[in-house]
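hi! just following up on the protien thing from before. the input was this:
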Amino acid sequence: MHVTIIGAGLGGLVLARVLHVHGIAATVYEAEPSPAARAQGGLLDIHVGTGQAALEAAGLTDEFRRLVLDGHEATRVLDRDGTVLHDEPDDGTGGRPEVPRGELRQLLLGSLPDGTVHWGHKVTGVRALGGGRHEVTFAGGATVTTTLLVGADGAWSKVRPLLSPATPEYIGRSYVETFLYDSDTRHPAAAKAVGGGAMLALAPGKGIQAHREKGGTLHTYVALTHPIDWFGDFADAEAAIARTAGEFAGWAPELTALITDGDTPPVLRPLHTLPVEHRWERVPGVTLVGDAAHLAAPNGEGANLAMLDGAELALALAGHDDAETALAAFERVMFPRSAEAAADGNELHELLFGDDSPHGLITLFTRGASG
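and the predicted 3d structure came back as:
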């Protein structure tokens, strides 16, 4: 058996690693030219039953633990005037330790045999050849033929059309991403407002969400509920910042500074989802993991589910003599799990940005703390 994986994100890399642990060969094709081609995002909270279970299957639990940033599970909710409405410190007993996404990806890359990942291979098309075989075409015209293909290639997957006509749809909300560096020295008021972990300042339809990362970096996602055209051209960074900050007129300056004082140009992150119950009929020789299979509103589960998908698919392939039986078994479990997580994500976004924001979220936190 040889598995061809499209995409060197966390899901694809966990899949390749767990396959390697079980003596199954895999090749990963990634569009990026190198592991350092771009920043890999901020912190990830790795959950006990999903992401941590996947890393255990990969034999990397001890190495993962060395990446954990102590104290970063703290969470606070602020009112628009900066008043602390809820403050939950990190006492070391939480089940969702925070790690830098880029460092976790490097850990997975380093756990694979040399040459497993082929960088600079952007997929331009995939077609079925019959009998479970598929041909993958890359930019430049090179091709590879596979007998077992896995799409781990994210929201705009090139593999998904083999299985499903579904395409991601804009949910009516976008994030604007900003960074403040060396915040304790250069942005002390904003650093104090964010605290040691995550901070959420929310109102109906919008919010400022920030997380403290390594070196005092404050990584912020500003949520706004508008049609995509409203956001305009982010090539004009100054205008984009003014337009975004204008939605928070009258908010505490230590909160709006997370927008206006950014040390990098703002980046627009439109939010798209696949249908909550997205699934497909079994197609020989191919399946999907992660966002390619179940893109949902951000709720802290996406990376965790992608890693669990990768681990469980690898374990299914290792545990069955017949690949088709393994793929069917994997999908049978993955479909309801991802649907439940997507529905939970929609409910969380209602708590974050619905008419009762932020009070519904605070009720959820206090209920969890009491029971």
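The mean pLDDT is 94.
The radius of gyration is 21 Å.
cheers
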